UniProtKB/TrEMBL annotation:
It comes from Gordonia asplenii. This is HAD family hydrolase. InterPro entries: HAD-like_hydrolase_sf, HAD-like_sf, HAD_2, HAD_sf, PGP-like_dom2. The lineage of its organism: Bacteria, Bacillati, Actinomycetota, Actinomycetes, Mycobacteriales. It comes from the Bacteria. Keywords: Hydrolase. One of its GO terms (cellular component) is cytosol. Residues 281-290 have a biased composition (Pro residues).
């Protein structure tokens, strides 16, 4: 199993939300209006085998027609598209927040992503969003994330971003370590874009494409249930790693670990108190001596205690 990722990029449609029926209903009207010949849901889903916009433009033929179709489809999504969240994924996202910086990379519009995340109270769990109206090419979106956003701060489901201290601030023009970035998606095209960009690709079995298709495209793992993402990404680390990218230890990766550990302490309320500069340091009080017949107690490591609490919750 690979080391836990410092950053996780989620696809939206088919990954975070149930999209097959909802997106097809919106597109069907566009197909009828323009006579594109994509008159079944299966044909529509087939457009996602590669970059969706590139596939749609190819079907349209001319640039003028493609611009009109894409524009109308995006407008229809903004107005009518209201998919349901995949059951269980909201909880999974919140469990990931202390561990990794989260982002959304989607062919859908920023307005739709905003509506979906806000309606599920997840808008402040994601630090970055690349909608199709911002960056229609998934490969280019991954590159932009690696070169800028992934090196920055994350969020702990609050409006403000983490503020790195001077000793953990990334150097100008620093890039994220691809070894520590994972894309979670339901489509072959996204998996191929992730592999080409050198980051990890993890598939989900409840979206557009099957487990077999995603593995054949290069996904290192395909989750059958949302909770399996937590087990796979943050479980026990083995010496043998199934990732196709090489292990690279960089200064940025070391800084990421420092920031991640600090965020974990903040979330658990540890280490928040600060002593002013020059203030006398008083030794910690000694614990009272236990009574002669008092029951023996055991102090758990905070990380172990947190893991046990999650298990029995």
């Amino acid at each position: 199993m690979c080391p836990p990722p410092s950053a996780v990029i989620f696809d939206l449609d088919g990954t975070l939300v149930q999209t097959r029926e909802a997106s097809w209903k919106v597109f069907a009207a566009i197909n009828d209006a323009h006579g594109l010949g994509i008159d079944t849901a299966e044909k529509f889903f087939g457009l996602f085998a590669d970059n969706f916009f590139a596939s749609l433009r190819e079907v349209c033929g001319t640039t003028e027609r493609a611009d009109r179709v894409v524009g109308e489809f995006m407008s229809a999504l903004d107005e009518h598209y209201a998919p349901m969240m995949v059951p269980g994924l909201a909880d999974v996202v919140k469990q990931m927040v202390p561990q990794s910086r989260l982002a959304v990379l989607s062919s859908n519009t920023t307005a739709v992503i905003r509506r979906v995340l806000r309606s599920n109270h997840l808008e402040y769990c994601f630090a970055h969003v690349f909608g199709g109206d911002v960056e229609p090419d998934k490969g280019r979106g991954i590159e932009r994330f690696l070169s800028d956003a992934a090196v920055g701060s994350g969020r702990l489901c609050t409006a403000y971003y983490d503020e790195p201290t001077g000793d953990t601030r990334s150097a100008p023009n620093a890039t994220a370590n691809p070894r520590e970035v994972a894309l979670i998606t339901d489509t072959v095209g996204d998996v191929e874009a992730a592999v080409a960009s050198g980051i990890r690709a993890v598939g989900v079995a409840w979206g557009m494409h099957t487990e077999e298709q995603l593995l054949a495209a290069g996904a290192e793992f395909v989750a059958i249930w949302p909770q399996e993402l937590l087990s796979y990404l943050y479980g026990r680390v083995d010496d043998a790693c199934s990732c196709s990218v090489a292990v690279v230890e960089t200064a940025t990766a070391q800084q990421d670990r420092v920031v991640r550990n600090r965020r974990l302490r903040r979330l658990r309320g540890i280490g928040n108190a600060r002593v002013p500069a020059g203030a006398p340091q008083s030794p910690p009080p000694k614990p009272p001596a236990p009574a002669r017949d008092a029951q023996r107690t055991t102090t758990l490591d905070p990380v172990l205690a947190d893991a046990i609490a999650r298990t029995i919750r």
